[in-house]
Each structure stands twice: as structure tokens, then as C-alpha cells.
Amino acid sequence: xxxxxxxxxxxxxxxxxxxxxxxxxxxxxxxxxxxxxxxxxxxxxxxxxxxxxxxxxxxxxxxxxxxxxxxxxxxxxxxxxxxxxxxxxxxxxxxxxxxxxxxxxxxxxxxxxxxxxxxxxxxxxxxxxxxxxxxxxxxxxxxxxxxxxxxxxxxxxxxxxxxxxxxxxxxxxxxxxxxxxxxxxxxxxx
Length: 190
What we know:
Order of helices and strands: HHEEEHEHHEHHHEEHEEH
Shape: elongated
Strand order of the largest sheet: 4-3-5
Radius of gyration: 20 Å
Number of domains: 2
Largest sheet: 3 strands, parallel
Structural class: alpha/beta
Number of helices: 10
Strand content: 5-15%
């Protein structure tokens, strides 16, 4: 038996052990499982700011990998093997849904919701597999992007009256408290 054959199963065994252990340090100094960790890129800085504001109000969010763990930030193969995710539209949609379910959207405000929608659609637009241009005005959305938009339409994130928020398909624009913000955000959903 050669040494190569003897050590061949070792990398997979190490990865399996690491996946099941709280071995990833977060920005807050806690240790979590790799599957619970999220890495943010510079392109998601706007979303991070929105997440930070939501966290300050007690809404559970994501666990960012500590910036000192440069191997995880720079090596996609290691991230993939451990199951560490990049900050994505699913994280933002989950936060938006949680904020709506907890009744926190009035505290976050309509502008926060509008900026969150803009971040979600910016992230969708940067994923080539989600949106493909068919011409000057036409675009084709992937099934995943279409599903995300359907989920967004069900979240009550538009203020129609003090303390009353509704989902995109359930309001009349003339009844809005701030139609400029909600209509601009809805324009992205159309």
C-alpha cells in the first residue's frame, strides 16, 4: 500500500468532522457550525447595513464569518466543502419575512423596506443565471428568480395607513401613506 492510498480518505474525513463542529468564528466572537455561517462580499455592503439596523432592533439575522479567517473569504473551494454560504437574496428575503411576521416593519420604516428591495433586486441582477436580457426592454427571469419575486409579493411591506402594512398584490396606490416609496419599490417587482 502506498502512502497516497493510505492518506486518500483523510481530507474528506477532516471536512466531515469540521462540518459537524462549531469551528467557525463569527464577527461577534461566537463559534458556530459552518452551515450557519455567511460570508459577505463588498458588493453586499448595502445589504449588510440594512441587516445591522434590523439586528439592532432584535430581529435575528445572519452570522458573518470573522474577517480574520481570510482562507474562507478568499477560497471558494474551502467554503463550498464546509458548506459556508455567501450572503444572498434568500438571506435578505428571510430577514424581510421575519421582520414582517414580528411586526417590526413600522420600526424599520418604509425607506428601509425600499432599500432592502433595491438590494435584493441588485443581487438578482448580478447573478447572470437569474436574469438574462432579451433586448432593450425585455428580460427573462430564471425559475428561482420568479419564485423569489412571488415570495416578495406575499410579504406585507407596504404602508397603507399608520400601523397597517400590506403585501404588493393587496393594495391600491392611492391609499398609500408614502406612494413614492412603495410605487418605486413595486416598479422593481413588476
